[in-house]
Specification:
The chain is α+β, with helices and mostly antiparallel strands. The chain has helices at 49-59, 75-88, 103-108, 125-129, 167-176, 199-211, 234-250, 260-268, 280-289, 323-333, 336-344, 427-436, 446-457, 472-482; strands at 9-11, 34-40, 64-70, 95-99, 132-133, 136-137, 140-146, 148-152, 191-192, 217-219, 227-229, 274-277, 293-297, 309-316, 413-414. The chain has a 6-stranded mixed β-sheet. Strands 9-12-8-13-15 form a 5-stranded mixed β-sheet. A two-stranded antiparallel sheet has the order 5-6. Strand 2 (34-40), helix 1 and strand 3 form a beta-alpha-beta unit. Helix 6 packs across helix 13 (446-457). The longest helix is centred in the middle third of the chain and has 17 residues, at 234-250. The protein is globular. The two termini are 26 Å apart.
Length: 486
């Protein structure tokens, strides 16, 4: 899940230390409120729905006060600040809303505590896997994420034009978008994605490698932390090469420095006809380009591809003395009524039931509800190439659900407002994308993993094809050290 990317939220109390998995409330002076400090970066979605959910819970609890604390917007800066704070004082926060790739690191470093019970019921297995480390559950997923392919619907001269299903289709359509004989509005370039030297590049690298049938690392059977490195295999090398080739053929040169926001602006300004981005972008675009765009799952080699899974996980810190109300807030935010608010607000709920027409409705009302005129004040984290998880292929879900291999790609989802079933128009494409989405490696060493990928891959992104390729054998060797903590 998503490049200028996903940061966090943390809730805390500046009090003493506790540890372990006991979520029961501690003693409290009569009449005193528990203060839960929530640290987060500004939200780049259309509405602060996650913040509104937390504020609604707070308003209904006379014994609790939630205090928001703002962390740096950049994901790496937010992580560094949070780690440094908790290593110095494990009771500095009660709750942390982590990018999913941090869960294993925080668990291994004993900065967060394992959770009792099973708070992961009703979720996709690949979403639930981001909250596990070893034998324990360390977090409750708040929202998940899967990238979508955004495309212009209003420019094609061919009335029977269909959105791309495969990478070959996308490359042809991207070229057609620059040809005045095929479009009514000529685009300078066809496609934009996030290739700046940050988490967005790691996400796009993984997706390109997976689309070629390769793996950078693959979790070993029966192990919670051990990975087999496969960076020097022919299929992985093909995926690395394809990413650089597509950059040269169908993307603007500035994509080499682009984040999610940069590519959104390119699409809005009519510089590209296709864009890879996260679901929150739909509502942002709909406010300006209603009826002119649609979304489908990312392409693959023969049909629907695999997106990297993004999102945020909520965890209780190891030193919190307010674990009781903190756990109550976690469970509240993971409930169906709150998860449906996320879907309406442009985020990806973690519960399968939230994507069904007959499912629970959003609990927020009035101006706090998605589309209800919230003030848009910052107060959430989001979007880098969100989040991280295991190296295993994401399970598509139960038999017959979207995500089954070989199934036809989604029909385009477009148009303003909810569809006839009352769900947002991007729901079907998002559900299908989540069915095949895959987590990033669940490892305490993920920060070193992504830094290495960015360092090795970024120099290969040049307009001149003779300038640099990824040295896969060197990458393979260095990954072997990284995945062992070296």
């Amino acid at each position: 899940m998503t490049a200028a990317l996903a940061t966090l939220a943390a809730l805390a109390v500046l009090a003493g230390c506790g540890s372990g998995g006991d979520d029961r409330p501690g003693p409290e002076p009569s009449g005193a409120k528990r203060v839960l400090r929530l640290a987060t970066a500004s939200d780049v979605s259309q509405e602060p729905v996650r913040q509104n959910l937390i504020r609604a819970w707070d308003a209904a609890r006379p014994d609790v006060e939630v205090e928001f604390v703002h962390l740096p917007t950049a994901t790496d800066d937010a992580r560094s600040q949070l780690v440094a704070t908790l290593q110095g004082d494990k009771a500095a926060y009660d709750l942390v809303n982590m990018d999913v790739t941090w869960t294993a690191e925080f668990a291994a470093g004993e900065l967060i505590r394992p959770l009792d019970g099973d708070p992961l019921q009703g979720m996709w297995e690949q979403v639930a896997s981001t909250a596990r480390y070893g034998e324990d559950i360390w977090a409750v997923p708040f929202n998940t994420d899967a990238a979508l392919l955004y495309y212009r619907t209003d420019v094609w001269r061919d009335r029977d034009w269909k959105p791309p299903r495969t990478w070959r289709d996308l490359e042809r359509a991207a070229a057609a978008a620059t040809d005045g004989a095929q479009v009514t509005e000529v685009f300078e370039h066809g496609y934009a994605t996030q290739l700046g030297e940050y988490e967005g590049l790691t996400v796009n690298t993984l997706e390109s490698v997976w689309a070629s049938g390769g793996e950078l690392v693959l979790k070993k059977d029966g192990s919670a932390t051990a990975y087999e490195v496969r960076a020097a295999t022919p299929r992985t090398e093909a995926g690395l090469r394809n990413l650089a080739d597509r950059y040269r053929r169908i993307m603007p040169p500035e994509v080499r420095r682009a984040t999610e926001l940069d590519t959104l602006r390119m699409f809005e300004r009519g510089e590209v006809a296709f864009m890879r981005n996260w679901p929150y972008v739909y509502n942002v675009l709909d406010a300006k380009m209603a009826g002119k765009f649609g979304v489908v799952p990312l392409p693959g080699p023969k049909g629907r591809g695999a997106s990297v899974l993004g999102g945020q996980n909520l965890a209780i810190t190891a030193g919190s003395e307010n674990a009781g109300p903190a756990r109550e807030l976690l469970d509240h935010l993971a409930a169906p009524e709150q998860q449906r608010c996320l879907l309406d607000g442009g985020f990806a709920p973690v519960l399968k039931a939230s994507y069904e027409p007959e499912g629970p409705k959003c609990s927020l009302t009035g101006s706090a509800a998605p589309g209800g005129g919230a003030d848009g004040e910052g107060g959430e984290t989001d979007r880098t190439a969100e989040a991280g998880k295991s190296g295993e292929a994401g399970k598509p879900g139960e038999p017959g659900e979207p995500g089954e291999p070989g199934e036809e790609a989604a029909e385009p989802d477009s148009g303003p407002g909810p569809g006839p079933d009352g769900l947002p128009p991007y729901t079907r494409a998002l559900k299908e994308a989540l069915g095949t989405a895959r987590p990033r490696p669940v490892t305490p060493y993920y920060a070193a993993f992504t830094e290495l990928i960015q360092t090795e891959v970024h120099p290969s992104l040049r307009q001149n094809p003779d300038e640099g390729t990824v040295a896969s054998e060197r990458l393979d060797k260095e990954l072997r050290q990284v995945m062992k903590g070296g």
